[in-house]
Amino acid sequence: MMKMKNVKEIEAALTKACKKEMEQCSYEELYTALLHIVEEESEKKAEPVKGRKLYYISAEFLIGKLLSNNLINLGMYDDVKACLEAHGKSMSDLEEVEPEPSLGNGGLGRLAACFLDSLATLNLPGDGIGLRYHCGLFHQNFNNQLQNETPDFWLGGDDWARKTEKTYTVSLAGKDYTARLYQLAVTGYEGRTNFLNLFDLDTIDPSVIGEGISFDKTDIEKNLTLFLYPDDSDDAGRLLRIYQQYLMVSAGAQMILEECMERGSNLHDLDQYAAIQINDTHPSMVIPELIRLLCEKGIDFDEATEIVTKVCAYTNHTILAEALEKWPKHYLDTVVPQLMPIIEKLDAIVRTRTEDTSTAIIDGYQTVHMAHMDIHFTHSTNGVAALHTEILKNSELNNFYRLYPEKFNNKTNGITFRRWLLKCNPELTDLIESLIGPGFKKDASELEKLMDFVNDEKVLAKLEDIKYDNKAALAGWLAHTRNVTVNPESMFMIQSKRLHEYKRQQLNLLYLIHQYFEIKAGHMPEKPITAIFGAKAAPAYTIAKDIIHALLTLSRVFADDKEVSRWMQIVFIENYNVTAAEKMIPACDLSEQISLASKEASGTGNMKFMLNGALTLGAMDGANVEIAEAVGNNNIYIFGQSSDQVIRRYRNGDYCAREWYEIDPNIRRAIDFLTSEEMLAHGKQENLERLKNELIWKDWFQTLPDFNAYIVRKNQAVADYARNPKDWTRRTLINISKAGFFSSDRTIAEYNDDIWHLGK
Ligand code: 26V
What we know:
Distance between the termini: 19 Å
Shape: globular
Largest sheet: 9 strands, mixed
Strand order of the largest sheet: 5-6-7-2-1-8-9-12-13
Bound molecules: ligand 26V
Number of strands: 19
Strand content: 5-15%
Number of helices: 32
């Protein structure tokens, strides 16, 4: 295979593509030229498939910018960088030209992207199937300390998804639409190339977008793939979600059957050709859709159902009841009338298997439960971290577990080290390579060899310098892109993830207010603190937006107060996305993973921070439990209630926030401050009062019982960091060396061994 790998060849290709000397080229021109070169190189690594091929169907793929990552995976990064530098150009300036694809919300979508990288790296045949959203997730900006949403037109110029000639007819509400396939090459690290298949309509028209991200939700032909999960707070929004999901699964199912038949399947043996992973419930309609298509091709219903059960597997990503999709039957009657007879037959089958009506697909209120259909009619249901899977088995899905114990299994999430170490933290990567060689890039368990250096003063000094450089780099990036100044000498504590009450950014908020009072009382922290946040709130999620407002307002209060601002600064980074994460994560000292125990299915940011040398401050929740097990109690800061305690409290229904507020003066002082004069000078009374009342009267995610434990643990971390920096760094090295388990290569190998059994 020809591989373009040396600087001269790259220079020649770039000059040829741009038709001028490199010095004269704009970054836009160089980016486009490189995109095409990379695409060509990637294509060479696409291979015919033997045996089973995976189709990972997901409404989200949060892939991040691709140029640098693809160059790394193709082994061309260093040469391209050298070539650019030889002509006075910089890689980081070039990176800024690329728009970030906006195809996901958070962890679920980013996980799908990490999985695609690992599949290709492990040389496993596995494609993604999703949607080509034109504006994707909204762009967030702050105005008067409030979140505003605007469309993110990321699809402007050259992008990585190629338009193909392949189209499929999809019937929505009785009318035919033409779904067009776009394909994006996914190149593994020294591995094969797979594809991300994204469907779209040719008729999409962004001119239907009005104020902010509002648009006419009924005009499917023009709006279907405009946004990712448009607001589902009304009927039209919810219907649109079903339209989107069916477009994805129907076109996807047709494509899968077509490919497998081309490869020789007679459809009776479909399970020898295809494995389908259903990523949460958004693609669940693929089950009845495949059954429908197989029946259309002459297979009888019972056999079709059996085939589909063998082919499909389901991953559950949350135990939050409100996030488990269920649709009023009449919605489905409207959008997908062709599926309803099939779903009804499946429901009838379930009723012959068990008398337990709690596992029915269609309940007594004529509501269709998508997760129930998934569990009954796939051969595998997995959770995404050990604790999460146990909770599914023992409480949330216990009725299903008793029916099908053999279907339930755990696959603890992972992250790709190519993006979350090699790409985002080159200095650390180089240090690790100099100590243990390059093997860890493909076999993450080799990081364990770093344990030999935990008492090596020289290594620790280098590690400390790298952390400082990364903090200075984040400071530079913030100054350049957000006009914010931060002090890299301070301790960086970062909470970045979607804004949700269960993730408890409000607990962090109360801590910061508490510290404010401490400083006012003359008790200074042992080290200046920079509390950094990154988070988008769903546009219709009022309390989440109030929490953002409170943090932005508090940030102003601190900044205006000379006494406080010497010790504490709050930075809420606008428009948090993958690109921002790549800058923030390597710069973090303390990683905030403070969800209410039992509520965060896994978390994956927690793994990224650990890998990049941050210590975790966390509740015993999701994958934090496994991180704690891996690093040992001395190398992590755990606080708060256990998941058992939390579940018991919910079951007994005896949590009363108001009592905690009344009994504990520190809690009361912190909550009351939300509507203080100082806060009202910058913030809006309506929002701050609403948040205050929410905390006193509801506090559904039990912030108050964990308040004191959180303060104590966090201040312990600050003290340790201030008093014994060498020991802190030693403990970060332990975290790095124990991070190998959290590689998505390990996760994918487990999926393959237990569920997919893919060909090579
Ligand atoms: C969705 C919604 C939508 C409606 C309102 C409330 C709500 C709450 C949570 C969700 C999350 C849906 C699924 C999801 O994104 N789960 C995330 O998946 C990650 C990858 O497995 C995992 O690391 C996160 O812990 C989990 O929250």
